[in-house]
Structures are given as structure tokens and as C-alpha cells.
Amino acid sequence: MQRDGPYAGPSPVTFGQVFVPGQLSAKSGLAAIVDGHEVPAQLDVKTTNDDGSVRFGVVTLVSAVPAKMMLVKRPMPIGGAVDLAGLQGRYDLAVDIVLHGESGDTPRHFDVAALLSRALAAGKVSYWLRGPLATEARVDVPVESSLHLTFDIRGYADGSTLTDVQFNNDIAMQPVGGTLNYDVTITQHGKPVFQQTAVQHFHYQTWHRKIWSDGDPNVNVVHDVAAMERAGAIWNYDLHIGVPRQGVAHEQSLSIDASYTAILNNAGITKYMPMTGGRGDIGPLPIWDAVWLETQDADAARYSLVQADAAGSVPWHLFDSKTGTYVTTDQYPTLWDDGRAGPNGITALTQQEDGKDGWAVDPAHEPGLSYLAYLETGTRYYLDQLDAQA
Fold it and tell me: Helices in 17-106 by DSSP H: which ranges?
């Protein structure tokens, strides 16, 4: 693990981890050997192999960095999970949106702490992490037309929090929907932590922002890429070739360019996907993900995550609010998701993707923009991106 910034003491760290089949029972626990000292680790299992062993999970620990770490098997920890209800009085996050329409401006205010409290009391939260080091739960609320907000609220044992705020204009298969224009402000403890005016949010797009209570710890987790290859999670890359430093430096310059990383931007993704030549985003993995794997460099990681965030702007997010997930061909076996849908039993989207967003999606040449981001971080938003594209 590496810290991209000054030392600030032990930090909560959460990341994705793959396992070789048979390596770890789903009923086992973990600990981490950090620079020769054992520290507790929390494992939230996400997928298992046919033999019941863990295939992929999300690991949480608290560690000073930089540090070398090795995960080891331990008995399943005994004790209660971090209680998000216990955040009352310390958790204070709000989102304000001003929607611009033909009839004027409509302000909307969302007190996230109150939304979380009500959802917990009603048993209407969806948990992603739940253990003695971290608990994360999801709350989703409608805004207007096809826009809804999703809050992934994570509380750590040390009292710090992380909220992943999603702006999803993606509800499909309903009579209303389309482009929305708005201003947004996110406040924490009464102070603005993010502001954006004149957002033009086309239908079937999403974007998000992560808000830390104590500041982003800026920890880069360096994975054992050879072990990921042995687990069959990634292709067998030649890890001896290396990447010229000037290539990573170029990525670093772009990842701090506000115009390049702007919300709903395409970053390095080709918007006209029928084009097949001269593209860095198509291949077994996009070129930036290959660079991240080869180097495990913090700048390369940051640049790849910029692209994974930009995947939210691709209009392939077709969310069905009735099921709480993205539409599938099991639900709509005759769905045709562009303007060519017509008679003969073909099901059309109730709100067609009109192309005004500048994207041309081609199923034969779609890049895999979110796989490695999810694999390395274990972040639920990147799993959402995978599900949406699938």
C-alpha cells in the first residue's frame, strides 16, 4: 500500500481481492500481516466458486501506510458490525439540486442522514459491507422524471464515513424521462464540498462523487498481479515488459485536468464506437487498465478510475425501478434499445435514446470500462457500471 500524499496516521483501507479456487472457505475469516504485525481484516464475500470457496471479496482493514501486507486465514471474527444508526449526530451530508425547466426553477433538498435513518428504521437499506470494521448500506430516492439519487453510505469503526453519491438519470420503461438540466451542491457539516452548475444530464447516463468525512486518505493498494493471473481473474500479462514512465506521466497530467475529468465527459473513451481503429479503449482490457496492471502505480490507477467514472456517461444505463436493477432480456426478451424498434412484436424503450448526447454505442465494439476498477477497488458503483453494460 502507498499513500499519495503526506502521512496522516493509520487509515481505513477497502479494496477488492480475488482468490484461487479452494484457497479460502466462505466460512473463513482473514487477518493481515502488515510489516510483521497482525491486524484485523474484514472480508465481505461477493462471489464463490463451484466448490463453495471464495472467488472474490471486499477486504477492509486499518493500517498505516506505506506498508507491505499479506492476507492470512483466521477464524471468522466474533462481534457486532459497525452500526450505521450510531452515526446519528456525527453524520451530516446533504444534496441540493435546482432543476431548470420551462416553468422555472425547482429546488430539491435531500438530507442524507435523515434518509438513512428512515431507511434503517423501515428495513429498506441494501447492505454491501457489514462487519466489525466497516458497514456500507445503500439508500435510493427519486428526484424528478427519470432521475434518482443513490447513496452508498459507509461507516468505519473509527467513526469516519465515506458517501458515494450517485446521480442516475437512467430510469427506463416508464412514460416520462429525458434530458434534465440542473445545478447541484453537496454539503457536509454545513459547508459545500462539491458544486456544479449547468449540468446537462442526458437520459441513460449516470455520474457520481465520493465524499469522505475526514478527507480522502489517498491510499493506493498495490495488488499481486501474478496472483490475480493465477486466479484466472485477468489475462496473463508479461509483467517484465514494463511501461515507459513518460506514458504514466501523461496519464497523470490528464487525471488532474478539470476539463478532462469533468462529470459526464467521455475522457479517453471513443464516443463513436463503430470505429475500430486507433482506439485505446478496446482490447482484452483498455490500454490504461493494462498500464495499471503492469505498473500498479498510483497515477496509473487514478487515470484508469477516471475512465471508469466516465463510463457513467455512456447511454447504456437502462434501470427498471420496478425490479431495482437494470433491464435484462429475461424481463424483456424482445427489447430493441434504439430507434429501429417497430412492429412485429419488437419492444421499444418508452423513451428512446435520441443521440443528442453524442454517443453511438456499438455492441460489437464496446470497451470493458469497469471490470478492472471493480476488481481492484470492490466499489459498488463500478459493479453497477458492469451490470448496466451487461
Answer: none
